[in-house]
Amino acid sequence: MSSPLLEVKDLQVVVGEENKVLLDGLNLTVNAGETHVLMGHNGAGKSTLMSALMGDPRYTVTRGQIIFRGQDITHETADVRARAGMFLSFQTPEEIPGITLESFLRTAAGAVTGKPVKVMKFRREMAAQMEALNMDPSYADRYLNVGFSGGEKKKSEILQLMMLKPDLAILDETDSGLDVDAVRLASEGIREYQKENPDGALLIITHSTRILDALHVDATHIMVNGHIVASGDASLVDKINREGYEEYEKLA
């Protein structure tokens, strides 16, 4: 039996000079090809977990382990984790003046594969993926996210997912601020990623859950005050949508 793609063991994460504990005793296992959903109120620790998984230097792991593809990456930098096959779609994507979207993606693709990128082939694939996302092709030559609308920034994140094809894609509220049509396109982009990468795994934070409509969900986890207090299958998403988090808040 193959080992899990991602294992989070007894993770404790603190922030700031006062070492405020944000996550404590958190455990999570994600296997290749699975889709996991993380839900909870604002401030529950969901985005903190995502940032800690990607090695955000603002957060310090004081106990536990993060194991990815059998390797302990608990204290590795974000670039090492990205090259290993991890990807984070930001809740609020940053604007990066001076670097075009195409240049950013070509550089990232070369860093991940360790091989020179064939420019014309890359451009053809990028154009096809942008068309699938209904993105204006001129955005390829614009500085990354500079002047992009909120929806176009989120499409840019999905485009990165489709082009880089990571082993583990972490999506932090990718659907927030998107209209119904944009959510549908984002969901289709995620499905295309899954089709081209059947062993690729997804860890999705969402509030609206509309982005999950076209996806098969293997596991759902509820976070409260830095703890995962309940886990279940896709039916747990429907239960939360109907009943909210009240019964879980007392479990933390």
What characteristics describe this protein?
single chain; 252 residues; alpha/beta; six-stranded mixed β-sheet; four-stranded antiparallel β-sheet; 35% helix; globular
Q: Can you put this structure into words, describing what you see?
A:
The chain has about 250 residues and is of the alpha/beta class. It is built from eight helices and twelve strands. A six-stranded mixed beta sheet has the order 6-9-10-3-11-12, sandwiched between helices. A four-stranded antiparallel beta sheet has the order 2-1-4-5. A two-stranded antiparallel sheet has the order 7-8. A hairpin with a 2-residue loop joins β4 and β5. α3 (about 100-115) packs parallel to α5 and α5 (about 150-165) runs parallel beside α6 (about 180-195). The chain is globular and about 55 Å long.
Spell out the helices and strands N to C: EEEHEEHEEHHEHEHEEEHH
- Kindly state the number of beta strands: 12
**Largest sheet entry:** 6 strands, mixed
Helix content: 25-40%
Approximate strand percentage? 25-35%
Structural class label: alpha/beta
Helix count? 8
With strands numbered from the N-terminus, the spatial order across the biggest sheet is 6-9-10-3-11-12
Global morphology = globular
Distance between the termini: 33 Å
Low-confidence residue ranges: none
Please, what is the average pLDDT?
91
Supply Rg: 18 Å
In short:
With 252 residues, the chain is an alpha/beta fold.
Write the layout of secondary structure elements.
Blueprint lengths: L5 E10 L4 E11 L4 E5 L6 H8 L5 E10 L2 E2 L5 H7 L1 E4 L6 E5 H13 L5 H14 L10 E2 L5 H15 L3 E5 L7 H17 L4 E5 L13 E6 L2 E6 L2 H9 L2 H4 L3
Parallel strand pairs: 3-10, 3-11, 6-9, 9-10
Antiparallel strand pairs: 1-2, 1-4, 4-5, 7-8, 11-12
